[in-house]
Amino acid sequence: MDAESRRLLGRLIRRERIAHLGTLRDAAPMVSMTLYLPEPDFSVFYVHVSRLAWHTQDMQHDARVALSISETDDRRADPFTLMRVSIRGEAAQIPTGPKDAWLGRFPEQAINFELADFSFWKIVPRDARFVAGYGRIHNASAAELAATSAAP
What we know:
With 152 residues, this protein is α+β, with helices and mostly antiparallel strands. It is 23% helix and 42% strand.
């Protein structure tokens, strides 16, 4: 991946806050919207989810997941030129998470920390596929994804 693509990918992951989380539900794909928080080095992506949600129940049964992060639709003529990345990885529930950083990014989510059914999960990337625009597609290992975090 060239330097400009690394910079664009890093900016996309840091700027956007919404992802679509793909899980396996009864051996079939299920996708739902979620909020995410990346580690500064993109080695882990955190989600804070309710155990009542299907995606949480799915992760309890099968750790294989995907996060899809896309540039916000700006109503351009060809939405296929929007940048997007799909990150495949493994999810694991963790006893504590980056609560302060989460609330810094999502202050309106403070109420969820008062509810007993919410917990942090970490998603450790396996690999990624980045589409920087029409015909500009890059596959990246977890190490290559982490390397994009250092791009300005």
